[in-house]
Amino acid sequence: MLRSGITGAFAAAAAARPATVQAFSKGQRLRLLEASLPLSPSRFSCQARSFSLSTRASNTSQSSGKTTSKDAASTARDKSSSHKPGSSTQFKKQYPPVRPLPKPINFDKPAIPNPHETAAAHARFRRGSRQVGIAALIAIVLGAVAYQFQDSIHLDGSAAPIRGLQLPHDEMERQVREAQKAQANGTNFALLALTRSTTIAKAVALCVWDYRSTLGKKYASSAEEAEELRQCHLRSAHRILVALQTNGGLYVKLGQHISAVILLPVEWTSTLRPLQDQNTPTPLPELEAMFRTETGMSFDEAFSEIDPKPIGVASLAQVHRAVDRETGQALAIKMMHPDVERFSEVDMKTVTVLVKWVKRLLPEFSFEWLADEMNENMPLEMDFRHEAQNAKRAEDDFAGYRTTSVYIPKVKYVFKRVMAMEFIDGRRPDDLRYLAQHNIDRNRVSQELSRVFSQMLYLHGFFHADPHGGNVLIRPAQPGSRSRYNFEVVLLDHGLYFDIDPDLRANYARFWLSLLKRASPEVTAERRKYAKLIADIDDDLYPILESAITGRAGLEGSDPNNPNGVKNRNRAGSLLEMDGGTKLTDDEQEHIRKTVMQKEGLFVSIMELLRRLPRRMLMVLKLNDLTRSLDASLHTTHGPTRPFLIAARLCALTVYRDDLKQLKERRKSGQASLLTSFSLWKDYFRAWWSYVYFYRGLAMIEIASDVRARWKKIVQFSSNRVGKGGSAEKANSAAAGLHDQAERDQKEGEDRKRAQLALEKDLRH
């Protein structure tokens, strides 16, 4: 009824005012109807469809000109239903607009329970962050300034002059300026570089000519040929010694490498051995010029006292004792020789060219491995910052031991060419008189040296590769020391360190353990197996490798073509059966020399072995040779096998750890079957038993060796104390090993004189 009433009203209005109603468009009529009638969506849709049909009918009747009253009423109703609120119309009643839908709520961000407190906390955090950032920036700036001037902050212009210098301050300053001027002079640099290259090239050329002449001659007998070759070795080694000492620097380091290779003829190694610690020092004014360039300070500004006489002169640097002006601490100042860095590049290139030249003229003499090693390691050794890093790592390796005799000096500051360290008052290991004065047992010193370097090699995998007598000090144990004895082993010069691969380390340890087993076909096969793994050699080079590693004439089964040993006696079956001490006896040295010189092609095989050995194994051989040399210089009484026992026990520990690691990997990767579990447990037991057999069993042999060493010292003391000519002083000297050391020094002096006479005789002819 409502709908019909409204429709009638619209019809009447249309009849009364047709022009006004027709003025509404179709859209207006539709919107008016939608706003006026509160219809449901479904009813509104029906009404909209009805409206559409009526509109089309109205349009059709208008276009034909036959409009009826019924059509007019329908048209008026449609137009009134589309009335838009706010438009000009006769209707008084206005309908409110449709309210817009509310915006959807976005729940991506979590609601903040306490927005005001949270905002305040954020503000406080931002303020605190700014304050911390400003403080950190200030600290960084101050730290950088302090780092740049850390060694000159305490300088005092009214400081007292240095005590100990022979030259007046003005004269020293003049020499410093002259040294700086000479260092920057390019003409002198080129001239000196040419002189250095010519010196070494001349020595090498004479050696090559001498060897070609000696090897090209025909001799009446093999003994005459061996003697001539020995004299050629002496002459050549002395020529190279003089040339290396003349040039200094890297050439001295090169000679040190050669002197430590036991595979080379003894004439070479003994002649070049003085290069390890007998070098020419650099004048102090030249060092001060370099010191000032590095640190920005003079000696007078940095130290209240400095000793002009160096306490040590090495191939690359020398060390002076000084007293820090600020703290009064005694320091050891290590400074690089100025010529070393100036000529390092040209020296390395010269050596490389000479080595290639020697190989071209004498293909059997290949020293390329030596040149490669020098080119790789010399730049690292000439940066003291690298040395300080090595020292820190070595100190960390020994920090985990509850007891250890190792002590590494603390570094105060370090630059590329200058390093200040804690001064250590100690002596070389071969200073037997110093050891006797402090009641230090030289046998214990030898044992600790073997233990220290074996720990580095087998347990740490990071070892000191240059442990000659000048780089090791012995001092009495200090308060708070972790040493189990009354002395400490101080390690110096950490520039040359090497890592060793865990697999190579484990295989090398297994090879050492096989050398301790009694000889048998199975043991011989085991030795050759691990020798191939560590050195990549065939059976023909195995005897040479065994002698190089053990430093002895060879064990049973090492050389089937030469079954007899020294003086045609049977060879020892293992290292535990060897006689004559850890050092080579005179008879054994003669046997090795004759074997190398008389056996056809053996010297060439030695060169081939050195060429094929992995670089790390070459450094391991050098470590073995130098540690044996340290033991020999102590003239111990503990017997031939003591250092071998220490190394073997650590080898057993290394092998046991490697076995456990491999078994653990097998257990993780294998199937969990009963048969597999039984095999693993059997291998676990085998590894454990091997460890107990070597590590614990060799400890009993060590005790017996210590008892034997003490008994020998008692015999030495008693034989020189009683009887004709006996005295307490003589007895103490003999028990301290001073008699044996004097005999060895005399023999080495005779060898040096013989080499010099041989060279002078050759020059006269």
UniProtKB/TrEMBL annotation:
Protein name as catalogued: Putative unusual protein kinase
One Pfam assignment: ABC1
Domain annotation ABC1 atypical kinase-like: ranges: 275-522
Comp. bias intervals (Basic and acidic residues): 740-755
Keywords: Kinase, Transferase
Family recorded in the similarity comment: Belongs to the protein kinase superfamily. ADCK protein kinase family.
Bias kind Polar residues: ranges: 55-72, 83-92
GO cellular component, one term: mitochondrial inner membrane
Domain of life where this protein originates: Eukaryota
Keyword Transferase: yes
GO molecular function ontology, one term from the record: kinase activity
Organism of derivation: Kalmanozyma brasiliensis (strain GHG001)
Region (Disordered): 55-115, 553-572, 722-755
A biological-process GO annotation: lipid homeostasis
